[in-house]
Amino acid sequence: MQAVAYIGGSSLKNPTYAAIAVQIFDAAGHLLASICEPIGLQTNNYAEYHALVRCLEEARRLGVQRLTVYTDCEPLSKQWTGEYRVKASNIKPLYTTAKALAEGIGVQVVYLQKDSNEQLQLVDRLAHAAAKHIQRFGNLHLQEDDDGTTD
After folding, report:
1. Phi, psi (rounded to 5 degrees) for 97
2. For the chain, which terminus, N or C, has the lower number of CB atoms within 10 Å?
3. Can you give the pTM of this predicted structure?
4. What is the pLDDT at residue 132?
5. Which residues contact 106 (CB under 8 A, 6 or more apart)?
6. Is the pLDDT of residue 53 over 50?
7. pLDDT tens-digit profile of 104-118?
């Protein structure tokens, strides 16, 4: 199956509260997956790479064999093709994970200016809204439940 994905990551004040958004569509344009997740306190570049990893995980789960990933993060697209090196120590593990997940899938990562693509604008808004939500309310989903017992 061929698919197209749009990914976005957002960190409100870089680094601070961050979240990701991913949407994957089949060749006919039908939505296969939509992901919007908080990722804690991170940089914007980390959020972009985390979105790529989640996208590839979901693509593998869906059985995608060819995937074009659109991003508004030019460094990510140039690092993917080898034009730029990954230097940041917090990004290297994500890059390695993404490359491993891409094995067996024909993956192309394409940079697009966000202003020129409605889908990229949407995933960016979703990620930004999720980051704002965790800034305001905390990341309740990732917090451990307090069962009232003492240790």
Report:
1. -65, -45
2. C
3. 0.88
4. 87
5. 65, 66, 67
6. yes
7. 999 999 999 988 899
